[in-house]
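Please go through this chain and its backbone structure tokens and walk me through the local backbone shapes. Keep your notes short.
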Amino acid sequence: MRYTRMPIEIESPEEKGYSTIQYNLAESSVRDITLDSLNVDLSGILLFYGEHKGMYKLRQAIIEESKVLTPEDVIVTAGAAMALFITSTTLLSPKDHLVVIRPNYGTNIETPRAIECTISIVDLSFEHNYEIDVAAVAAAIQPNTRLISITNPHNPTGRVYSDETLRALIALAEERGCHLLVDETYRDLNFQTALKPFAAELSDKVISVSSVSKSYGAPGIRTGWVITRDQKLLHDLLAAREQITLCNSVVDETIALHLLTHKEKLVSAHHEHIRKNFAYLKEWMAKQPYLEWVEPQAGVVCFPRVKAQYKVDVEALYDKLYNEYGTVVGPGHWFEQERTYMRIGYGYPHHEELKTGLHNLEKCIKATLL
């Protein structure tokens, strides 16, 4: 496999150095939490090899709200990143084919590229509200297609796909004998509507992936999961996971269990913060002249673009924003889009940080107009 570092990782806030950033609008999660805020007792943990699928109580907590799934349908992984990696490396080879929706989270494209499988990309467009063209997906499927890959809620736009669209994609996977990967990292941040069931509940051809990183502000414990009712596939995914880490950190899993046990309290507090920030962001977008967006429906990110009537020196824009104003957003090339697009995270910053960061962004766009 030939690995390539992704721009989203090379240019991430943690790589730039958090101390160099005052207004962080590049994060795609809620604010990071501290261990002492959880009041979780770690003193009695036995530092042994844990269950290979993950702690049973944790797997039970992950699917607790489901009437369809069981703990045996879940493998706990070192973050959603590992879940995505073992899915790609288990299902894909140079002889296989992938259909991937773009824009998408980088790993869902770069790992298949490293595998050197054939990839058909179905691009979403601003003009069509980032709706998935199911007919285009169907046309892209080949006899050796093993996987269709989407994110829902969508990263980076915050679009939530309808049940009709999701079921149509599932029907395609069932008819063509492949799997549908649904990266559901933002599922618990459905702050405007009722929580949807796991996509994996709907068919044994569906793979759901998520973690505690985005919705709980705990990326540092590296705990995610992959869910599928396809037990043969689950067996193969476990084989891959075992060869990488054997099992997970029992410390991380204990903290993750605590988070999920207190899910309602923790997530509702995050939702309250997100709603406040989103209300301000929506008002700001309606008033400022330079950007336009497809309004997000869930998650903590949006993906506006500079309006066509304005020409901006994008290199100068991002340089000035960071170096003069200590502010960062996620430029479009993180998602293989034009740099006039940008991902803005509104769940991570405190309210005043968001307000100042957006004000800085507008000033920098104005200052770099051509």
